[in-house]
Amino acid sequence: MPIYIKNAKNFLTKSERFNYTCNPYGGCVHGCRYCYAHYMSSYRKEKEPWGSYIDIRDFQSYTIPKDASCIFISTVTDPYQPIEATQLKTQKALMALKDFPHKISILTKSTLVLRDIDILKELSHVEVGMSIATVDEKFRQVMEKNTSPIQARLDTLKKLHDAGITTYIFICPIFPKLTNYKKIIQLSKDFTDYYMFDFLNLRGQNKTWVLQEIKQHAPELYPLYEQIYVKNDDTYLQYIRQSILDYAQKEKIHLKSTF
Ligand code: SF4
Predict the structure, then answer these.
(1) 252: left (phi over 0), alpha (psi -120 to 50) or beta
(2) Residue 25 lies in a domain
(3) Tens place of pLDDT per residue across the chain (259 aa)
(4) Residue numbers of the domain that contains 144
(5) Would residue 256 count as lying in a domain?
């Protein structure tokens, strides 16, 4: 696996949506077939395909801009993908934020976040989220083969919650007829402060990858996926959206809108 060290001026990047973001790495080896960040590889001079390289961002400065009021870690990589175990770029970023008085939101699919539990406990407004798209391990291995198993992610979230850290689950992406959001909620509601959800964001190559996997692993659902993602008919997605809202209300689950 090619690994590159890339100079990066600052560790925080201004963002319209999040205020500031921190992406300690470029690329991600978690191997999610639906990854919307795959377009990032087109900005590199090297030509490796998405998922087959890592850029380690060598931050020249850990300065926190004066207008920073919220920092999201990360948007186009997983901050706790395996290389973080040895490179510690995410950990260093958290340490640089130790006196940051505003919200820091971390989103990962990895149990490695637990390594930093003592640092997280020191931060004043931190929350840790797990992305979970399925409770079916076989389907996880098809769609996101290098991520932590689902039960391990849930166990991690519970340990963080027990340590007093705010936790959330991002039910994402929702695969029509395959994402059992009720089960995700039932398995986690005792240690999850709130939920968000979002649908597949299929643009470019990831549409081809996901549709190929559905055709192979759930061929009976292929016509539905084609209707939604090829013919752009979102009727079924609207139905799921309303079902989730209704279920959250019935179960008294704190559901926030998507990012
Ligand atoms: S963990 Fe996130 S960034 Fe990494 S491959 Fe999966 S969706 Fe993409």
Answers:
(1) left
(2) yes
(3) 999 999 999 999 999 999 999 999 999 999 999 999 999 999 999 989 999 999 999 999 999 999 999 999 999 999 999 999 999 999 999 999 999 999 999 999 999 999 999 999 999 999 999 999 999 999 999 999 999 999 999 999 999 999 999 999 999 999 999 999 999 999 999 999 999 999 999 988 999 999 999 999 999 999 999 999 999 999 999 999 999 999 999 999 999 976 5
(4) 3-251
(5) no
Best of 29, 110, 144 to mutate for ligand 1, by most ligand atoms within 8 A of CB? 144
Q: Note whether residue 257 is domain-resident.
A: no
The pTM is what? Answer: 0.96
In testing the pocket of ligand 1, which one of 35, 52, 170 has its CB within 8 Å of the most ligand atoms? 35
Q: How many domains does the chain have?
A: 1
Number of H helices, E strands in the chain: 9, 10
Is there a domain that residue 112 lies in?
Answer: yes
Q: Cα of 199 to ligand 1 centre, how many Å? A: 15
What is the token pair recorded at 5?
């060290």
**Probe residue for ligand 1, chosen from 1, 54, 78 as the CB with the greatest number of ligand atoms within 8 Å:** 78
Alpha helices in the chain (DSSP H): 84-87, 89-96, 117-122, 137-143, 150-162, 181-188, 205-217, 222-229, 235-251
Nearest CA to ligand 1 atom 3: 77
Ligand 1 proximal residues by C-beta, below 6 Å: 28, 30, 32, 35, 37, 77-78, 109, 144
